Each structure stands twice: as C-alpha cells, then as structure tokens.
Amino acid sequence: MKAYIYDDIPGDQRLPHDTGKYLSEEILAKLGVTYKFIPIDEQEQWKNSIDVFANERGYKNRDQITVTPAGLGESYETKIKSFFDEHLHEDEEIRYILAGSGYFDIRGAGEFHDEQWIRIGLEAGDLIVLPPGIYHRFTVDSNDTITAMRLFQDEPKWTPYSRQQDGTDNLGSRSLYLESVTKGSGVAA
C-alpha cells in the first residue's frame, strides 16, 4: 500500500498521478480508513486470516469481483468510469485484493488534507476498509486487472450516492463521518 496526495493533472485515471507527497497509515486512520496487509500464500493461510478479520468485524457475507477488459468485454470502459465517479456509501466498503492492482482515491477532510484527493495504491494482499460517508472513487491501474474479495456485514449491497446528486452531502453517514474526523477520532472503520 502506498498513499499520497493525488496530482489532479488531467489524464488517464489509471496512471499513478503521484505528487511524491506520501501519507502514513496514521493519517489514513484519522480519516477513518483501516488498512491491513494479509499476504497471499500458497498454503492459503490468508483465508484463515480473512475469516478471523470478518468474524471480529461482523462481516457475514462476501463475494469476489474481477475487473479486466476480457472479463467485462464491451462494458469495461463504462464500468471503470462508473467506479471513478466520486461517491459515498452508507455502509463500510471492504476490499481484499487477491490479484492485480488498482487505486482507491479518498477525499481528505477537516485538517487532514481537506477536499484533496488522496490516492491509495493497492495490490495483492492489501485489505482496506473505507468508512461510511467518505467520498471516494476507484480505478484499476495501467495493468487493467484486479480481483478483489468484497466483504459485507449483511446481504451484499453496493449503493453508491454520487456527489453530483442533490442531497448526498446531507446524508446521515456523511454528517457522522465529518463529525468523527473533525473530532480527530476517525470513525470505527
């Protein structure tokens, strides 16, 4: 995992857009983001580690998604553009990267890089939990392939609320998120 300030230079979203201004896991934690590295191993011990993590946090369901041009066919470009629309969820977003690589961009908040994009590069073995109410977006990198396990507390759902939609800033999850960051506590992600 590598986190840094996104350069905001127009161009291919799949490129690094790396400013060289790196951020620590501690800053991500203050923004409510949980990060863990659970290496993928041939003996598949990672599965036990994921089970323990899921049980500790009450995640009851999971599925797997693979994003590749071959796998998504003609809908690939449309799909990665939709993932890159700035949005939030009212539930945590949990991803464990099984193969490939990509980027989650999160919006800084409060004293922690307010409104700047923070890019988080992820690859196999990286696990990230984004808190409810955080604005974010996702893209594959220039390798155009990622396979991720998605974990859910209840039935799998993925309801994005685009920042462009009226009322998104007023959702309860957004208010609670901003309050937690303002207090400097992060959120229970």
UniProtKB/TrEMBL annotation:
UniProt keyword annotations, A-Z: Amino-acid biosynthesis, Cytoplasm, Dioxygenase, Iron, Metal-binding, Methionine biosynthesis, Nickel, Nucleus, Oxidoreductase
Family annotation (InterPro entries): ARD (IPR004313), ARD_euk (IPR027496), RmlC-like_jellyroll (IPR014710), RmlC_Cupin_sf (IPR011051)
Subcellular compartments: Cytoplasm; Nucleus
GO cellular component assignments: cytoplasm; nucleus
Cofactors, names only: Fe(2+); Ni(2+)
Protein family per UniProt: Belongs to the acireductone dioxygenase (ARD) family.
Protein task: Catalyzes 2 different reactions between oxygen and the acireductone 1,2-dihydroxy-3-keto-5-methylthiopentene (DHK-MTPene) depending upon the metal bound in the active site. Fe-containing acireductone dioxygenase (Fe-ARD) produces formate and 2-keto-4-methylthiobutyrate (KMTB), the alpha-ketoacid precursor of methionine in the methionine recycle pathway. Ni-containing acireductone dioxygenase (Ni-ARD) produces methylthiopropionate, carbon monoxide and formate, and does not lie on the methionine recycle pathway.
Record's protein name: Acireductone dioxygenase
Organism encoding this protein: Cryptococcus amylolentus CBS 6039
Lineage of producing organism: Eukaryota, Fungi, Dikarya, Basidiomycota, Agaricomycotina
